[in-house]
Amino acid sequence: MEYLFETADRNYEDFASGRVLYNARGTTAFPVRLASEIAQLCIGVLESRGASGPYSVYDPCCGGAYLLTVIGLLHGGRMNRIYASDSNPDVLGIAGKNLSLLTSEGLGGRRAELNKLIELYGKLSHRDAVASADRLGGLLAGSSIESVETFAADITRPGQVQELCRDLNLVITDLPYGDIASWTGDSADPVNDLFELAYERMEPSRSVLAIIADKSRKLKHDKFKRLQSARIGKRVFGIFEPIR
Length: 244
Prior knowledge:
Radius of gyration: 18 Å
Helix content: 25-40%
Largest sheet: 7 strands, mixed
CATH class: Alpha Beta
Low-confidence stretches: 178-182
Number of strands: 7
Number of helices: 6
Number of domains: 1
Distance between the termini: 30 Å
Mean pLDDT: 91
Structural class: alpha/beta
CATH superfamily: Vaccinia Virus protein VP39
């Protein structure tokens, strides 16, 4: 894959899961460079359609909200509302903690936790984490994020998704796969359910859907036009716009 925005392979250790961002057991992190690239590709599509930000963003399979937190930190100046849901209520507590890092209050609370660990154990890793928190705090200066909502919902059961989660500009998710994270429930076609859910909640002519999945997944739907796609290692991603 050729990167158009994240052209330099930078050091992203400040975003390492378990450093400042919280680690949710049983979920996966996501490559920071790829997350930023996909977010910027989506923003580019929205801008080309005349849809200027800030944008409302939703991840319906958020896990510990690592993906949302990363793009919120890096591109929070282009976003105003963030929604996160998952069918596993056990991970939503971590999702809420991670998304709280998109506020100065939440990041300050995390910094206090890390300083307490320094007092207790005096580990260099905790001091490095505080330094990372300080650098991440610098990213919040230009943020326009006004609200964050997390809730339990199964995308294969659309009635569970809150009505507040409508008129979305960007729906982005990394579909569960592999040995660490996998689908739950008995839906015959959860990917189709995701497309249907997104279609009903996306803002007409001002929205895009980005799906990252295992390379074996077929990402297509009659109600969406595929704008871009690429394969990255074991992953594939596609960017789609709803057909109205």
